[in-house]
Amino acid sequence: MTGIDVLASNGTNYTAIVIAVGIPVGIGIVIAVIVASYFRLQAHRADAVAMAHYRKLAEDAVANQQELRGQLARLTEKVQAVEQLMREVG
């Protein structure tokens, strides 16, 4: 006789054991993958919201910079006018 015959004569049904253990393990793995995917999705959504805020901040910074350049140009014109007046007077 071979070892297989001994196992078969023992009466232990290894197929039933593999199925009984394999199904809960498989379900557990599927649940773990679903939970991990959910939290990865939530992190991605949070990153997208943060990126939208940074984009808005950058647009506001550009607008403020353009406004400051306009004010600086007007101030430069006034300083040049004062310098011209000082040259004429003095």
Overall description:
This protein is mainly α. The protein has one domain (3-89). 93% of the residues lie in helices and 0% in strands. It contains 2 helices and no strands. It has helices at 3-10, 14-89. The radius of gyration is 38 Å and the shape is rod-shaped. The N and C termini lie far apart (125 Å).
Q: Percent of residues in helical segments? A: over 70%
Biggest pleated sheet: none
User: How many angstroms separate the termini?
Assistant: 125 Å
Provide the number of structural domains: 1
Rg, nearest Å: 38 Å
N-to-C SSE series? HH
Unreliable sequence segments: none
Kindly estimate the percentage of residues that lie in beta strands according to DSSP: under 5%
Total number of strands:
0
Question: What integer is the average pLDDT?
Answer: 90
Offer a quick outline of the entry.
Helix content is 93%, strand content 0%. The protein contains two helices and no strands.
Descriptive key words:
single chain; 90 residues; mainly alpha; 2 helices
What's the layout of helices and strands?
Elements: H1 3-10, H2 14-89
